[in-house]
Amino acid sequence: METAEWYRYFAEREVRGHSPAYEALALGIAADPGLLELIDGLPEPKRQPNLLLAAVRFLGGPYDEFGGFREWAVRHWAEVRETMLARRTQTNEAGRCASLLPVLAALPQPLALVEVGASAGLCLYPDRYRYRYDDGPEIGPAESPVLLTCRTNGKAPVPGSLPEVVWRAGLDLDPIDVRDDEAVRWLECLVWPEQEDRLARLRGAVRMARQDPPRLVRGDAAAALPDLVAAAPARATVVVFHSAVMPYLDPEARERFVALVRSLPVRWISNEGSPRLPSLLQKLTAELPEGRLAFLPALDGEPLAMAGPHGEWLDWLA
Question: What average pLDDT does the segment 74-100 reach?
């Protein structure tokens, strides 16, 4: 889509109701020819709204109102541009584990997890977080610094215990080391303003991961995924999973990725936004309230549920 349309979509469909500051900024950018011209000077994948907004925050720019944001961004555009070219929108939302947990717990145990697009690897620890679905009891280790809460439609097969994970590894084009304070600060800037619960969750997950940093491999799926799968313990069910990866692949690359995963001896869990999925799957979200963006957790290509982008709700389809 055109850059202005992209920013309007971000404002109206992604951050509306979640971040008034980002909604106002994105709408302002969408209507500003000067800023759009600067953004269009970047390679298309680097024009992402969250990347621009995070870069300005990372560099210390204002984001509380559009006028100040625009003036600062234009004045410091060389720095903003350099940051956007050097970094990626690697949002690492541990809350998505709440969407994945019922699927993981139902698979033959134990599990070996391989996450594609792992960022800092915080979603590789579904067995280290605490969970509460609706008003049910907490599940998970009492000492965990992270509690994930999730609303459901009452149909989700909430497990009574956590999956047994015996091996975990992540794959990313530019993996983030949870022990690197500057890299973690970038992750924090990717959390939208006003979302203090997400920020606290991120910081808790980072503290936990620093005690046992995940194995992260730099590379793309075509080159590295088969070897990672082969390295997993033979006695475990190998699970390849990903969340919000498809927006960063063109249609041909998505088809190649799906064909690769299907060719491997693994179970495949995808958790992707409905606008990036085929029209048949998009029909499942037709009755969503206006402006509500849904992800579709799926097992081996079969959709199981609709979920909030950050794991905040889960409507099981069965």
Answer: 95
Tens digits of residue pLDDT in 25-55: 999 999 999 999 999 999 998 999 999 999 9
Element (H, E) at 147: strand 147-152
Tell me phi and psi for residue 67, to 5 degrees. -60, -50
286 — pLDDT class (breaks 50, 70, 90): low
Q: Are 192 and 309 in contact (CB under 8 A)?
A: no
pLDDT at residue 276 in the model: 45
Rounded to an integer, what distance in angstroms lies between the CA atom of residue 165 and that of residue 144?
16
- Amino acid at position 54, single letter: A
State how far the alpha carbon of 217 is from the alpha carbons of 107, 206, 226, 260, in Å: 25, 18, 12, 18
Interval 210-247: pLDDT, tens: 999 999 999 988 889 999 999 999 999 999 999 988 88
Q: Is pLDDT above 80 for 293?
A: no
* Contact of 154 with 86, CB cutoff 8 Å: no
Q: Which two tokens stand for residue 97?
A: 């584990």
Terminal-residue alpha carbon distance, the chain: 34
Write down the H helix ranges in the chain.
3-9, 20-30, 33-40, 49-58, 66-75, 77-86, 97-106, 181-189, 196-210, 221-231, 251-263, 279-282
For tokens 């993996």, name the residue.
Answer: 175
At 313, the amino acid letter reads: W
C-alpha angle with apex 16: 6 to 278, nearest 5 degrees? 50
CA atoms of 205 and 199, how far apart (whole Å): 10
Q: Which residues have a Cβ under 8 Å from the Cβ of 27 and sit 6 or more positions away?
A: 7, 8, 11
Q: Residue 84 carries which DSSP code?
A: H
Residue 138 CA, chain-centre distance (Å), reads: 24
Tracing tokens 């069910």 back to the chain, one arrives at 237
